[in-house]
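The instructor's notes for this session suggest beginning with a concrete chain rather than abstract definitions. Hand out the sequence below and ask the class to guess, before any prediction is shown, which regions might be ordered.
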Amino acid sequence: MASMLVHAFRNVPTSVSRAAKLSTRLLSSVSHTHSQAAQATSKKTLAKPGLRNVVLVEGVRVPFLMSGTTYADLMPHDLARAALQGLLTRTNVPKADVEYIVFGTVIQEVKTSNVAREASLGAGFSDKTPSHTVTMACISSNQAMTTAVGLIASGQCETVIAGGVEFMSDVPIRHSRKMRKTLLSLNRAKTIGQTLSLLGKIRPDYFAPELPAVAEFSTSESMGHSADRLAAAFGVSRAEQDEFALRSHALAKKAETEKLLKDVIPFKVPGRHTVTKDNGIRPSSVEQLAKLKPAFIKPHGTITAANASFLTDGASAVLIMSEDKALAMGYKPLAYLRDFVYVSQDPKDQLLLGPTYATPKVLEKAGLALEDIDVFEFHEAFAAQILSNMKAMDSDWFAKTYMGRTSRVGVPKMEKFNCWGGSLSLGHPFGATGCRLVTTAAHRLIKGGGQYALVAACAAGGQGHGMVVETYPQK
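After discussion, reveal the predicted structure:
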C-alpha cells in the first residue's frame, strides 16, 4: 500500500491539494478559534426510541505530566485513585450509588494488573463494587466509556465510573527469557545440588533485560517509524508537522490561561508539591522546532520530539449515568453520549488512520454530515498522523481505493478542530486520553453553543474509535 500511496499523492488531484494547504491555515487559526465559536442551532436530537439516554455528568483528570517528573515515585493506582477521589469531590456522588467501575490502561503494572479494582478500593469505594480493567492501546479509556454506556443502555446499571491511567515513569522491565526459565526452575529445586547445577548454567547474556517498546508486535515497527512512513506516503512535510505542533501548544496555552481546561484537578503528590497544571505545554517557534533532529528515521525522517506526543503519566475519570438517574439525583449533565464505532485496518501501512475510517461510519450511524459537527476532538499521536488523516479524508482516490466509498469523507474546519490543544501539547497517557477527549468535547460544546461533537482516535494494532457527543440542553 505504501508505494501506491506515494505514487498517488505525488500526483495529487485538486481535492487533495486543498488538504495540503492546511499548514498555511494552522497558525492563523489560533487567533480565530474562540471568536468563531459554534453557534446554537435547532438541529435534531439523536435520542432513539426505546433506547435509554446515557449522559456524561462530569469528567476530571489529574494534570498530565511528562514521565520522569513529579509523579516519578508513584505507581499507576496512585494516579487512578487520585482521579477517582477528584471525581467524588467534584460531583459528591455517594460511593454506594456507583454500581460499577471500569478503567483502561496499556502497560500494566504486574502488582496491580486490575488497576481499576485497586484504585477503587484505595479511593474508598465498597469492596462490593465490581471493577475491571480493559486494554485497547490508545483507545483504552474510550473502550472503558463505551463499556459503561453499554451497561447503562442495557439496563444493567444506572451509574458507572469509567476512566483510564498510564504511568510511563516506571514500566515493567523483564529478565531475559533464559533467566526467567532458570529462576522458575530454581524455585522448584529440591536439593542444594540441583540449585548449584542450575546456577552453573547462568551465562552473562542471561542478564540482558527485555525493555518494553512502543512497537507493533505484528510488524516489530515502532509507531514513530510508521508515522514517518505515513508522512512520506501522504507527502506531509516537516514544516507542516512543526506548524501543526506549534498550533497545538499555542492553543493549549491559551486554553490554560483562560481557565478553559476545567477537567484538570489539583493533586497533592505525597512528599512533594501540589500539581495544578499540565507540564508539557511549551509554546515555541518555527525556528526552534526546525533545529531538532529526526527521532526515528535518521537522517531523513520528519518525526521529531516536538511534533510527536511525549511519554506521559496521567489518569482520568468520568461519571456516566442514565439520564433519569442523573436528573433524579439533581445533576445537570454535560452531554449525551451517543453513537460510537470501533474500526480496524492494516497495522502495517494504515496503523494511524483510525479517524479516517471511524469518522464516516459514526456519522452515518448517527445520521449526520460532517458539516453538522460543531466540535472536533481528535487524538494527536503525531502531527504527521493528524495531517495524513486530513489528506486521506479529503481524497476521492483513497476513499474509492481503500474505503469502498464513492467520494471522500471531507476535512474538518480547523476553527472547529482541537481548539484547546491536543495530545501533542497536553500529553498522552495512553490509557487515559479518551476520557480527556470526550470531556473536553463536552466543555467546548457548552462554551461555544454547539450541539454535536465528534471524538476520534487511532490506536496500536491499526484500530480506531469514533463517538458522537451531543450537548445537554443548557436551559
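Then share the key points. DSSP finds 17 helices and twelve strands in the chain. The CA atoms of residues 173 and 211 lie 5 Å apart.
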